[in-house]
Amino acid sequence: MSSALSFSSICFEQGCWFKEGRKIGVADKRAKRPSSMSFRVSAKSSVSSEKDIRIGLLGASGYTGAEIVRLLANHPHFGVTLMTADRKAGQSMESVFPHLRAQKLPRLVSVKDADFSTVDAVFCCLPHGTTQEIIKGLPTALKIVDLSADFRLRDISEYEEWYGQPHKAVELQKEVVYGLTELLREDIKKARLVANPGCYPTSVQLPLVPLIKANLIKHKNIIIDAKSGVSGAGRGAKEANLYSEIAEGISSYGVTRHRHVPEIEQGLSDVAQSKVTVSFTPHLMPMIRGMQSTIYVEMANGVRTEDLYQQLRTSYEDEEFVKVLDEGVIPRTHNVRGSNYCYMNVFPDRIPGRAIIISVIDNLVKGASGQALQNLNIMLGLPETTGLLNQPVFP
């Protein structure tokens, strides 16, 4: 029996699923589903079971939406029954993303025409600034993971400062849980609405939070030199993202004003229990996907690089998706491509008392859609690795 189906039971508000493939206590509305919404595990599986958790995908025509669809192809319980894309409404998903042709998916519709009675949970992949009002209007019974930045910052005034517009769902913000999975798992379990972290904040907070929590590094003089593949800028047509503008070069952007800065500082300040300010500079690299954050830190008095390394090993020794590499091994974006893994390591700086941390992820998977799926798994009582154990693609 596949590991994804080997758990004893999965229970949440809509019903329960057991490893024998029997459904128990499923709500009556599920029996009324049209046959077009019936999904089944491949016949090759030792268990024949419907994909009984119905997923809505808002903003399916972007890279993160397409990545969720790709990941869900291997998920034994989540089946997509609703997909929206306002500018592509009426089209098939395969016409927008031909690589997804093999999947049987509903046609794209506009958000205003979406029937949310056909779904149990929603991934929201809409652009920043458009999500708050839409999520505010969704049925309160839905579990939601929002991949935009609209709910990541708890401080409403800080959101308005960095995103240049007023927050349109202030009351809803109060119930949001920030979804950095490995560090906030218990809160995510109880959440209805999760704000999925940004890609840069994921790659930065995973190594830094355990070190700050253990008082191994100082809260000042943290320098983050981060680099991302072009897919991080989204699918929209932009002159700066043309091949001739990107190829054979590196470009810095958002210097001192990148919108992920307050998100990073919020997470680090929470664990430090005092304000942490970082120096963060992102760079666009001539590659499609991948992200590396090289972080320079000042160690606390008497602390050695080996102490940082051992703390990270201890913090993540039981985690599937965060791997601290053997001493001296340099993380490479190639080695996490297409996967939900974060690889990291620590190195001594030539400057006494300082250390260098390197963290790599796939910006579209662990930095977005993969972590979103990991979070929804947890919210619905599933093993969080379900549908996410695909190994990195290399070369």
From TrEMBL:
The active site is at 199. One of its GO terms (molecular function) is N-acetyl-gamma-glutamyl-phosphate reductase activity. GO terms for biological process: L-arginine biosynthetic process. It catalyses: N-acetyl-L-glutamate 5-semialdehyde + phosphate + NADP(+) = N-acetyl-L-glutamyl 5-phosphate + NADPH + H(+). It holds the Pfam family Semialdhyde_dhC_1. Residues 54-191 form the Semialdehyde dehydrogenase NAD-binding domain. Pathway: Amino-acid biosynthesis; L-arginine biosynthesis; N(2)-acetyl-L-ornithine from L-glutamate: step 3/4. Its EC number is 1.2.1.38. Keywords: Amino-acid biosynthesis, Arginine biosynthesis, NADP, Oxidoreductase. InterPro entries: AGPR (IPR050085), AGPR_AS (IPR023013), AGPR_dimerisation_dom (IPR058924), AGPR_type-1 (IPR000706), NAD(P)-bd_dom_sf (IPR036291), Semialdehyde_DH_NAD-bd (IPR000534). The keyword NADP applies. CDD domains: AGPR_1_C, AGPR_1_N. Belongs to the NAGSA dehydrogenase family. Type 1 subfamily. HAMAP family: ArgC_type1. This is Probable N-acetyl-gamma-glutamyl-phosphate reductase, chloroplastic. It comes from Thlaspi arvense (Field penny-cress).
